[in-house]
Amino acid sequence: QVQLGESGGGLVQAGGSLRLSCASAGGTLRNYAMAWFRQAPGKEREFVAANRWNSWTIGNIYYADSVKGRFTISRDNAKNTVYLQMNRLKPEDTAVYYCAATPARLYDDGLGDKYDYWGQGTQVTVSS
User: Fold this and answer.
1) From CA 41, how far away is CA 8, in angstroms rounded?
2) What is the mean pLDDT of residues 49-64?
């Protein structure tokens, strides 16, 4: 069983970059499908990026339209960490960002936000 913890959030000016990390205490992330979500004040939690099953090929990584071309999700097996590289940040990217995991064998494209494990979140604030 994994225990997820995010880091790397902070305050950045519009146009800047941040890299969020999601580390696992417990199980290896190799066996999990991973995702990033975010929730802005007063808004519903929304999907940001994810991979399918435990595949990290280009065709099995997908993004919300609002971040496509600016954000990149990746995994470092040696560090047992998943990243979200965020470039060309906009004020509307301001939110608490959460990483999530579900056993790869249980993944399907209809999963939505029904991931089994969640981190505590990290705040990202983009100033204009």
Assistant:
1) 19
2) 94
15 versus 27: which is more confidently predicted? 15
Decide if pLDDT at 27 tops 90: no
The whole-angstrom separation of Cα 118 and Cα 30 is 16
- Using a 10 angstrom Cβ sphere, with 0-12 exposed, 13-18 middle and 19 or more buried, the burial of residue 29 is buried
H/E stretch holding 63 reads: strand 61-63
How many Cα atoms occupy the beta-carbon half-sphere of 4 within 13 Å? Answer: 27
Distance CA 124, CA 75 (A): 20
Cα gap 121→69, rounded to integer Å? 23
- CA pair distance 58, 20, nearest whole angstrom: 20
Mean pLDDT of 24-50: 94
Q: Tell me: the pLDDT tens digits for 59-69?
A: 999 999 999 99
Report the distance separating Cα 65 and Cα 67, nearest Å. Answer: 6
Q: Which of 15, 20, 17, 40 is nearest to 128 (CA)?
A: 15
